[in-house]
Structures are given as structure tokens and as C-alpha cells.
Specification:
171 residues; alpha/beta; 13% strand
């Protein structure tokens, strides 16, 4: 990346903060997404975690890291990897770049190939580029829900604990 593009990227990310996230996704939208995740997790044994950040931290910008790198880090920080069946999924939205990333734990990653994940991402990109963030996140939750229900359906009458918070993590 040339110096001008790098400087533009840094300014764009540092300019945005949590108030930008709150404008894009107000309290009511966050509650609706939380309810959608909770309802989804009744259909399968997987865990879905939504993470929304306004911009990348300075350390990521300094080394010109990608949104994917941050999503993988947040997958660990939010303990999405720490589910009983290794079937947690992080849906990560980076507002500064209107970028969506999905990180799946190894249990689900073995079942879903790269082309299927790309199809999921392609299906929701338009919503993010148009600024319809709630719609895009809902599409992401629904797509991940369908994959988890296909590969890890909830067993009727079986104990299905909620291992991770359903509330989107916002910064």
C-alpha cells in the first residue's frame, strides 16, 4: 500500500468511534440482533457471536493488518473457539471499511468449504455497502444459522446450553 492510501486508511479508522457504531446500529437494532442469535441457537448446538468495531486499533493500522486478522484475533478474545463441539462462529463487522468477516471454529470449518463461505459473504456485502448494517448482520446470522442447523442440529429434548453471550460485542 502506498503512503497516501495508508495515511487515508489510518485517518478513516481513527476518525470513527463507538458513537458511529451506535448511529449505524442503535440499541433497538442491537436488541433485535441479540434476539435473532438467541432464537437461532435453539435450532442447533452451535454458538454465534456478533462483533462490530468502528475502526481497527492503532497497532493493527500501524502494521497494515487486515480486517480478517482482527476478526481472527477477536474470535480468540471473545472465546468463540471455546465451545463444547468446536462449532462457534464469529460474525465480524468493521464499519470503517464496511467489511464483513466470518470466522468458524474447526468443527464447522470441516463441514463448510471456502466456496460456501464466499457465497454467504457475497450475499450480504450489498447491504453493508449500502449502509444497511442491521440487514446485513441479520443475513449473516441467518446464513450461519442455516449452516449450523444443517451440520449441528439440536437434538430434540437434549440439553443445549448457551455457551456465549448473544448480545453483539460493540467497540
Amino acid at each position: 500500500m502506498n503512503k497516501g492510501n495508508r495515511l487515508t486508511r489510518i485517518v478513516k479508522h481513527r476518525w470513527m468511534d463507538e458513537s458511529d457504531v451506535r448511529r449505524a446500529l442503535d440499541e433497538a437494532a442491537l436488541q433485535r440482533i441479540e434476539q435473532r442469535v438467541a432464537a437461532s441457537e435453539k435450532r442447533h448446538s452451535g454458538e454465534i457471536r456478533v462483533c462490530v468495531e468502528a475502526g481497527l486499533p492503532w497497532s493493527y493500522l500501524w502494521r497494515d493488518a487486515t480486517a480478517r486478522e482482527r476478526a481472527v484475533t477477536m474470535f480468540g478474545k471473545l472465546r468463540v473457539w471455546d465451545t463444547e463441539a468446536n462449532n462457534g462462529v464469529l460474525i465480524y463487522l468493521l464499519l470503517a471499511e464496511r467489511c464483513i468477516e466470518i470466522v468458524a471454529d474447526r468443527g464447522l470449518a470441516r463441514c463448510v468449504d471456502a466456496a460456501q463461505w464466499q457465497k454467504v459473504l457475497d450475499g450480504m456485502r450489498a447491504a453493508f455497502h449500502e449502509g444497511r448494517f442491521e440487514d446485513g448482520l441479520n443475513q449473516a446470522v441467518d446464513a450461519v444459522d442455516a449452516l449450523l442447523a444443517q451440520h449441528f442440529p439440536a437434538a430434540p429434548g437434549a440439553h443445549n446450553p448457551n455457551e456465549l453471550p448473544d448480545r453483539p460485542w460493540v467497540r
